[in-house]
């Protein structure tokens, strides 16, 4: 299968390596010339693509799956993206659970009020161009050198009782593969580890936080139910 990862950043590079290992023909794009050589180690093809300057998108012809992984909170790519006139049988867009308000409640994909305007604008733009797109809203990205332990190595968390909404990249990879092989279209899914320990629990700090306090939680129950998915890393405490 020919799979294009458009905007091959931290997650995209790991995804390219994973899909190449599954014998897919992976086409990776980047806006940075210095990233070409590293990406050539994990993808069959690597191309410079900048929506503000690229004119010829011909290398994306005959792609079976296009995965859009551009920076969601920046609109610099919006105008150029609309010039992409190639049709793809299947499309995914990597978004963020940061779209949900900072309110103390459990958020599901059915929550559509007061969403963050810049993230929502990116989602809507991709959906307008490619109505079949499945939107994957990732929690905070973790794995390898990304961890709360490293994040707070030299500082103390301001709110140690805050509950976590993270996802390990080793779960993202097989989840994306599920969508590549699925016939589901035009849906939104939260991609977040199902357990939500506090920052204090993850860092093994003393805290006055008690679990009966209502906090902001992003639910991944829809993903679990629709795909019968079992997380490799269900608890950020053990990332």
Describe, in plain words, how this protein is organized in 3D.
This protein is an alpha/beta fold. The chain contains eight helices and eleven strands. It has a seven-stranded parallel beta sheet with strand order 3-2-1-4-5-7-10, sandwiched between helices. A two-stranded parallel sheet has the order 6-11. Helix 5 (148-151) links the parallel strand 8 and strand 9. Helix 1 packs across helix 6. The longest helix is centred in the middle third of the chain and has 13 residues, at 117-129.
> What is the total tally of β strands?
11
Low-pLDDT parts are none
Shape: globular
**What structural class should be given to the helix and strand makeup?**
alpha/beta
Strand order of the largest sheet: 3-2-1-4-5-7-10
How many helices? 8
Helix proportion range = 25-40%
Helix and strand element order:
EHEHEEHEEHEEHEHEHEH
Q: What is this structure's SSE topology?
A:
Blueprint lengths: L1 E5 L3 H12 L3 E6 L5 H5 L4 E4 L16 E4 L9 H4 L8 E7 L9 E2 L9 H13 L4 E5 L1 E3 L5 H4 L14 E3 H12 L7 E4 L7 H5 L13 E2 L2 H7 L12
Parallel strand pairs: 1-2, 1-4, 2-3, 4-5, 5-7, 6-11, 7-10, 8-9
Helix pairs in contact: 1-6
Structure characteristics:
239 residues, alpha/beta, two-stranded parallel ribbon, 7-stranded parallel beta sheet, 8 helices
């Amino acid at each position: 299968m020919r799979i294009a990862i458009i905007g091959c950043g931290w997650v995209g590079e790991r995804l390219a390596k994973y899909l190449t290992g599954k014998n897919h023909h992976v086409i990776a794009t980047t806006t940075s010339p210095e990233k070409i050589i590293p990406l050539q180690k994990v993808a069959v093809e690597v191309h410079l693509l900048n929506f503000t300057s690229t004119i010829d998108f011909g290398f994306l012809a005959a792609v079976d799956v296009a995965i859009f992984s551009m920076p969601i909170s920046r609109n610099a790519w919006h105008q150029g993206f609309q010039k992409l006139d190639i049709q793809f049988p299947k499309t995914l867009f990597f978004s963020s659970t940061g779209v949900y308000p900072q309110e103390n409640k459990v958020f599901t994909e059915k929550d559509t009020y007061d969403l963050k305007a810049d993230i929502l604008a990116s989602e809507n733009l991709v959906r307008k161009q490619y109505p079949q797109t499945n939107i994957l809203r990732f929690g905070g990205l973790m794995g390898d050198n990304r961890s709360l332990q490293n994040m707070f190595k030299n500082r103390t968390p301001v709110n140690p009782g805050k509950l976590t909404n993270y996802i390990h990249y080793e779960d993202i990879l097989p989840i994306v593969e599920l969508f590549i092989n699925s016939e589901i279209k035009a849906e939104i899914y939260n991609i977040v580890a199902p357990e939500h320990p506090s920052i204090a629990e993850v860092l093994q700090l003393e805290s006055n936080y008690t679990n009966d306090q209502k906090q902001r939680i992003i639910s991944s129950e829809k993903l679990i139910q629709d795909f019968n998915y079992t997380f490799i890393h269900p608890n950020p405490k053990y990332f």
